[in-house]
Design a protein that fits this description.
- The chain is 19% helix and 36% strand.
- With 165 residues, the chain is of the alpha+beta class.
- It has one domain: Regulatory factor, effector binding domain (Multidrug-efflux Transporter 1 Regulator Bmrr, Chain A).
- Strands 1-7-9-8-3-4-2-6-5 form a 9-stranded antiparallel beta sheet, covered by helices on one side.
- A hairpin with a 5-residue loop joins β3 and β4.
- It is globular, with a radius of gyration of 15 Å.
- It starts with 12 loop residues before the first strand and ends with a strand.
């Protein structure tokens, strides 16, 4: 199973992630209270770059949290792309789009259907179900925003991918 399936994941699915190339904007040393501003600025800057045909996405928007999302963490916001960026791309907002990749290796996944407000409970459930299988978080948390954010909250689909240690 790949990281970007057409159908939603079940309650706990195991998969092998491949190092898919990404174009991202990085934010270091964030807290949960910083997310709204980071998301708004980051995705706006990337969207303008896509509109200029500089980058072409090959999958849905995603966010990769590195570290403890309940404390201080680093964040990558972006999209999968066909091939790795050769050079950083400055944006009109002053941020820079850089090359990254999905971490490769074993992971577990689930899908949250509904409002983004449900993501915390979705993550807690995924960690709990993974624990019953003897799997523990590897310190990277990936949210794949399958639905357009303009979709009504009850119709949103977000896939949660958790590389395991």
């Amino acid at each position: 199973m790949n990281a970007f399936p057409d159908a939603p994941f079940g309650p706990l699915e195991q998969l092998d992630l491949e190092a898919t190339p990404l174009a991202v904007i990085r934010h270091n040393g964030l807290r949960l209270t910083d997310l709204q501003d980071a998301f708004d600025a980051g995705y706006s800057a990337i969207a303008l770059t896509f509109a200029g045909d500089v980058l072409i996405p090959t999958g849905p928007a995603l966010a990769i949290y590195h570290g403890d999302p309940m404390d201080v963490f680093d964040l990558e916001l972006g999209f999968p792309v066909q091939s790795p960026l050769a050079n950083p791309i400055p944006t009109a907002s002053g941020s820079v789009i850089v090359a990254s990749a999905l971490p490769s290796g074993r992971a577990v996944a689930t899908t949250v259907l509904g409002s983004y407000d449900e993501l915390g409970a979705g993550w807690a459930g995924l960690v709990e179900r993974a624990g019953t299988e003897g799997l523990r978080p590897g310190g990277v948390w990936i949210e794949v925003y399958v639905s357009d954010p303009g979709t009504t909250p009850e119709e949103l689909r977000t896939d949660l991918l958790m590389p395991t240690a």
